[in-house]
């Protein structure tokens, strides 16, 4: 059973979102996603200051077996990217909700928060997806 | 639900992540496929390969039949137990499958072919066996285990009767022998030393558990693929198929053109192909970070003298992966003759530099291609 921390929000494409005290949103991929991908060997994070549209493919995570896009859960601008992942992609496997974070985004003020799921809704989504 | 080997329940109990492989429910990994890969390179791992197609051919003219059926020449097999790797060809030279032929006795040879090609292999073999009076019998009663790695043989012989252990340890590379109900061969698909064991289906699970208890790591198809690619071994369906002949698939060494008097299926087509020349299967090492994947397009690097101009397409990747041993992306690619040493690979629209090399990349735990 994959871990779904209670203090985060989620997407149907298996990203998580954490609201930081600065107002920025931290984004990563879920425990379920890293488990499904298997050993991560390459991560491409977005450049700092890149503008993102909600739902836009903004990062790539590659395991031994497959490459997968990561989609921005919100519109905004990239404030920080996790450069450690360039040399330690396995952090996505070992600590997907912590050291394996992908990027921090300053959300657009007017942006409607995308259709984010609560932990309970994400758990139910996983269950229904089998 | 797909077909299941006798080890399915045992593997589920050990946490196997199951995928479909040619209609079979097979373990992809039991946790980290990279850990499984390293276990095979450094110690010992065990793979369930019971899905593979084991066929016994019997009859006085079996050797004669195989000399006609296979592109390699079983006349090379003189001692019982010896094995030969060969392609099974259409008259066009297209590869129906690759397989290993074992010389058991003068009236009994055994073939081990791929699972995904089983049906067409059996049909093709049966079609040609008749005139030679050869009987074809698929051995669905047997399971098959591959125990691979530098410590694989030492750990496996503990399961063999004490008086026969010496014989098992001394098996020559690429040959096998019977040990009670087992046929044990010093073959594999990982680039490491080890055994492949064909044994009665009912014995598979206890043997698997005994080897795991000896410290042999259960490994799945994920690790099997990265290991074979590092070892520079082809995968049927990726690096060869019926649209390509062996000379374009890095398998010229498996085609026995001599003696010229031997007629075999595909000879005429391969003789013509050999004169014409054509693309070749080569190795690639990606210079930067990233992962090489099947079907990525390869083009000439601008500074390559062999290529008249940049961006000329040279071919494509047939198998690509991330090499856990080299910590670098590697691939097999079918490229126009003379390609390299520097080429560009299109990875999601970005041209990334790669180097053309001669596989294998890794053998017996050692990196053979400097990175």
Verbal overview:
The complex is a heterodimer of chains A (about 130) and B (about 375). Chain A has helices at about 30-35, 90-95, 120-130, and strands at about 10, 15-20, 25-30, 40-45, 50, 55-65, 65-70, 75-80, 105. The mean pLDDT of chain A is about 95. Chain A is globular. With about 130 residues, chain A is of the alpha+beta class. Chain A has one domain: RNA polymerase II/Efflux pump adaptor protein, barrel-sandwich hybrid domain (OB fold (Dihydrolipoamide Acetyltransferase, E2P), Beta Barrel). With about 375 residues, chain B is of the alpha+beta class. Among the domains of chain B are: about 10-45 and about 140-230, Gyrase A, domain 2 (2-Layer Sandwich); about 280-365, Aminomethyltransferase beta-barrel domains (Elongation Factor Tu (Ef-tu), domain 3). Chain B is built from nine helices and 21 strands. A six-stranded mixed sheet of chain B has the order 10-11-12-9-3-13. The longest helix of chain B is centred in the middle third of the chain and has 13 residues, at about 200-215. The radius of gyration of chain B is 21 Å and the shape is globular. The chains are: A alpha+beta (about 130), B alpha+beta (about 375).
